[in-house]
Amino acid sequence: MAATFGKYPSLDKQWRKMMFSFYPYLSTKNRNATQEEWKIRRLIWDFKDGKAFSNVAHLVANKLIQLYGSETKNIIFACVPASSAEKNEKRYKNFSSMVCQLCGMCNAYDHIKVKGEKSAEHDNVDKNDIHNKQEIEFDQDFFKGKKVIVFDDILTKGFAYAIFANKIEKLGAEVLGGLFIGKTVYTTN
């Protein structure tokens, strides 16, 4: 993200915060993936389909406990909405509930409503169009004065994360940073 600093001043604040990803996610443009890279791809794809949420929930909850210990009880867990209300429910409803049960965080799922659809950041759309066809309604009272960790499945360039984090901070919350299953890479070492 460091190369992007300064180019999008309203997003820089979020990109300077903690952004942790568990795995490198090799772009599907690279067809020469190793067996391990295919395993990571399948985990992320299964998560997006609502299938692998338990494994990912344990991974995320353990990391949150490692980072914040007993303070997790004072932090809200909020997922960057998927491209539609249907996909958002399939992907995040059970997952966010399990993460919060495992680590004692407060679940924001029921306090964020998704209407309409958006393009995914990795669909190569202009950053200004990511959320233009999607309306996200927040329960402002729920977020005001709270600390928040943002979660998204894949960190590509960070626009979706930063835009969402900015919206949460406009409600009076403090975003501590973001967690991601994978961070997109385009070549292997």
UniProtKB/TrEMBL annotation:
- Superkingdom as given in the UniProt entry: Bacteria
Matching entries from InterPro entries are given as: PRTase-like, PRTase_dom
Q: Which GO terms describe its molecular function?
A: glycosyltransferase activity
Keywords from the named record: Glycosyltransferase, Transferase
Name it.
Phosphoribosyltransferase
What phylogenetic lineage does the species belong to? Bacteria, Pseudomonadati, Bacteroidota, Bacteroidia, Bacteroidales
